[in-house]
Write a structure and sequence with these properties.
This is Alpha/beta hydrolase. The protein is built from five helices and six strands. It is an alpha/beta fold. The two termini are 15 Å apart.
C-alpha cells in the first residue's frame, strides 16, 4: 500500500481545491497540516513534512501544490526515506518578488538539485506565480518529467478544475512508474 501526502501551499488549499477533493475522496491520501498557512516558516514547514513522512508505514508519494513544491525541494535535501515519487503542481517561483508574495520569500532560494525520487512537474502557461520557462527549469534541475497543461491559471480552485481527473491520471502514471522501480 502507498500513502499519498497532499502538501498545500500558501493559504492551505481550500475546500474546492483539487487537493482537498482528493483528500476527501481517496482513502490513501492524507493532508499535511501546517500550523500557519498564511505565514509560512520554512524550518517549521520542513519539520512538519518530515514528521508526516516518518509517520507513514508504507511507501510515500507526495502531492504538492505551489509553495508546497518549494517545501518538497527543501525537504528532499536532507530527507528521502520511503518517498518514491512526487507530483509537483504549479511550483511557485519563491525567488521572484515579481511573481510571488513576500510571505514565501523565506523559501528562497529555490533548491535546484536533482530530487532523489521520481517526479512530475505540472505547469500552466498563464500561471501568475511562475513563468512557463522557470517551471521548466525547475523540472530540468530536479530531474522531473515536465507536463504543460496549457492555460490553467495557477492550477487551483480558481481554475475550476474540480477534482481534476487529468491530475489523477498523472498521479496514477507517477505511482505506476515510481513503485515498479
Amino acid at each position: 500500500m502507498t500513502t499519498c501526502l497532499v502538501i498545500p501551499g500558501l493559504g492551505g488549499s481550500g475546500p474546492t481545491h483539487w487537493q482537498s477533493h482528493w483528500a476527501r475522496a481517496l482513502p490513501q491520501v492524507r493532508r499535511v497540516v501546517q500550523d500557519d498557512w498564511d505565514a509560512p516558516q520554512r524550518k517549521a514547514w520542513v519539520a512538519t513534512l518530515a514528521a508526516a513522512v516518518d509517520s507513514c508505514r508504507d511507501d510515500v508519494v507526495l502531492i504538492a501544490h505551489s509553495l508546497g513544491c518549494a517545501l518538497v525541494a527543501h525537504w528532499a535535501r536532507q530527507h528521502g526515506g520511503r518517498v518514491r515519487g512526487a507530483l509537483l503542481v504549479a511550483p511557485a517561483d519563491v525567488d521572484s518578488p515579481a511573481h510571488t508574495p513576500a510571505e514565501v520569500r523565506g523559501f528562497a532560494p529555490m533548491p535546484l538539485r536533482p530530487l532523489p525520487f521520481a517526479s512530475i512537474v505540472v505547469a500552466s502557461r498563464n500561471d501568475p506565480y511562475v513563468p512557463m520557462a522557470r517551471a521548466r527549469q525547475f523540472a530540468d534541475c530536479w530531474g522531473s518529467r515536465f507536463e504543460d497543461i496549457g492555460d490553467a491559471g495557477h492550477i487551483n480552485a480558481d481554475a475550476g478544475l474540480g477534482n481534476w481527473p487529468d491530475g489523477l491520471a498523472l498521479l496514477d502514471t507517477l505511482c505506476a512508474a515510481a513503485l515498479t522501480d
